[in-house]
Write a structure and sequence with these properties.
The protein is built from four helices and six strands. The chain has 183 residues and is an alpha+beta fold. The strands form two sheets. Strands 3-6-4-5 form a four-stranded mixed beta sheet, with helices on one face. It has a two-stranded antiparallel sheet with strand order 1-2.
Length: 183
């Protein structure tokens, strides 16, 4: 086949079947002969220049994420080491419109209701920082508190607790609601 067709224009695959998928049951010479077979699978390839339908679809909207993961125990103050990451996020989002969700998280220490409130304060501190870097009117802002309910890790060590004290930020590009509409 390769002598008759341009091999660079096809994807080739040879599949052989025998004992794994027998056509005929049994161990006779006739059954063995019928079960020895191979198939050549090939598919013609095309380039984008030859066929515009080969081009991958363009994304319909931008989605950008960031995370701050350096909150101290029982604290909602944004750390200096997280600000460059948030600055990069703001730079990437600048010029777009859409929704920004800031989700706060805690470790397992403390009551559920206390951790919910602490996670909300963490998310709000990230939101306040981002609103100094971006035009707030270009976005619908949302704060969510997950408290201790969505940990990165289930371990209960000091390092694991530190990982779980975080805020997660998601931007989704889209049109803003009309002035009179609720987000």
């Amino acid at each position: 086949m390769e002598t008759q067709l341009d091999a660079s224009r096809y994807d080739w695959e040879v599949k052989s079947y025998g004992e794994s998928k027998p056509l005929v049951e049994g161990t006779s010479l006739q059954a063995n002969a019928e079960n020895r077979r191979a198939y050549v699978m090939f598919e013609q390839t095309q380039t984008q220049q030859e066929n515009v339908f080969c081009e991958p679809p363009a994304p319909e909207r931008k989605v950008i994420v960031a995370m701050t993961s350096h909150f101290d125990f029982d604290d909602a103050q944004l750390q200096a080491m997280d600000k460059p990451n948030l600055d990069d996020f703001a730079t990437n989002v600048n010029g777009f419109q859409g929704r920004i969700l800031v989700a706060g998280h805690t470790d397992y220490q403390g009551s559920i209701s206390y951790n919910e409130a602490l996670a909300k304060r963490r998310a709000e501190s990230v939101l306040q920082y981002l609103q100094t870097k971006l035009d707030p009117s270009n976005f619908v802002w949302e704060v969510k508190s997950f408290g201790e309910l969505n940990p990165i890790t289930e371990e209960q060590t000091l390092d694991a607790n530190a990982l779980n004290r975080r805020a997660f930020i998601v931007f989704k590009e889209g049109e803003l609601p009309d002035d009179g509409a609720q987000p």
